[in-house]
Amino acid sequence: MRYRLAIIVLLAALVGLCAGGCKEGPFAQPFAIKQSNAATIAQAPGAGSQAIASQVQDLNRRVSQLDVNNADLHRQLAQAEQMRQTSQEQVSLLQKQLGEMAARLKDTQVAKAEVEKQVNAIQASTRARGGATITANNSIRQSLAMVSIPGLDIRQDGEVIRIEIPSDKLFATSSANLLTDGYRILDEVAAAVQRTYQRQRIVVEAHTDDSLSTNPTAAHLLTTGQAQMVFQQLVQRGRLPARQLSVLAMGENHPLASNATPAGKAKNRRVEIVVYPDTID
Fold first, then answer.
1. Which of 4, 135, 166, 232 is 20 to 30 A from 18, comparing alpha carbons?
2. pLDDT at 22
3. 126-279 falls under which CATH superfamily?
């Protein structure tokens, strides 16, 4: 608008000068009319005004076009600013998502480290305790005798003897808390080991079903607690040497039956007292 006002003022000044005459003064020469054109101007006294009016209209048209162009530029600038803000919001969202993913990754790494720690502890517990050396003895390998404990399944599995105890008879549901009858059962197992397997290496294996399949860490922690509880009772109440025993938490990794039925799940929830033919001294 300022440009338009300036142009209109300039044009008005030019019209005034021409209307007043241009015969004298510093502008006389540029606006002098040649003698040869005098007749034409005389014949068309309004021709100069019409030319100026035409120029004014042309200038107005150009100014209007400038206004339109200016409006277009402002609109494009507004659109560019909106796009910039949208891009900034998307970048902020991506940064937030990356932060959340980094936090989850850290939690996963911590959980993995904890599981590895538990596994290492379990593996270490399978070795003989108290610095005892485990040695093979072929004559004993061939002479492991079967024992009989009422209510328990005892079977030969290759070179080892497995005394299978249902976890439901030992522990409260999904826990390592011994039931009253669990103490009696473990006392009977300890007595049988003292009578028949005084020198053999014994491993306490704890197993569970797939009820905790969505959280394998929890399954291993449960069976770790159960195996350690059985170990504690066999040593403290059963008077078995601690160096004779090891514990192993198996989680749900070695089922004996299908987990598709309640009976199969119950079969898989078990503690096995595994007698090896190796001696501890």
1. 4
2. 47
3. OmpA-like domain (3.30.1330.60)
